[in-house]
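To whoever is on call:

I kicked off a structure prediction for a single chain this morning and the downstream step that reads the tokens threw a length-mismatch warning. I double-checked the sequence; it's 159 residues and nothing unusual in it as far as I can see. Pasting both halves so you can look.
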Amino acid sequence: MQSSVVSNAHPLLTFCTCVASTKAQTARKAALKGTQGQKVKKVRTTSAFRLPKTLRLARTPKYVRKAAPRFATLDQYSVLKQPLNTETAMKKIEDDNTLVFLVDVRANKHQIKDAVKKLYDVDAAKINTLIRPDGIKKAYIRLPADVDALDVANKIGFI
């Protein structure tokens, strides 16, 4: 008969002592050598330091800063103020096929062109603008050759 040595120790107890001894060894190693290890120096390739791009969240305001949203103030009726019917403007209508309007100072050529299209159903071939010494903007609206500026002026009603 063979005699076998029976251990009285519980298997879980032996496992805990094994784990505890490895934890103790790692703690000893950390205390002696330190936990940081070797620092790797970053190689800089440019002379300027640029901050890293971090997360930029969209604003979530608690309340709106304006009581009511602003609406577009320059519609076609406020862009074109009035047609100009001076002698030189009439000469432009007859000779150059060009209408002359006083327009809003803030209006640009695209807005003037769209306003003429919407109000009078006429495409503009070219638009020249200037600001007069009294601060009012004047627009010379050149019409295409197939549209007569005199007919458009009669339709508007300032001739």
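Update from on-call: the warning came from a stale cache, not from the record. Cleared it. Sanity check on the structure: Strands lie at 80-83, 98-103, 126-131, 137-142.
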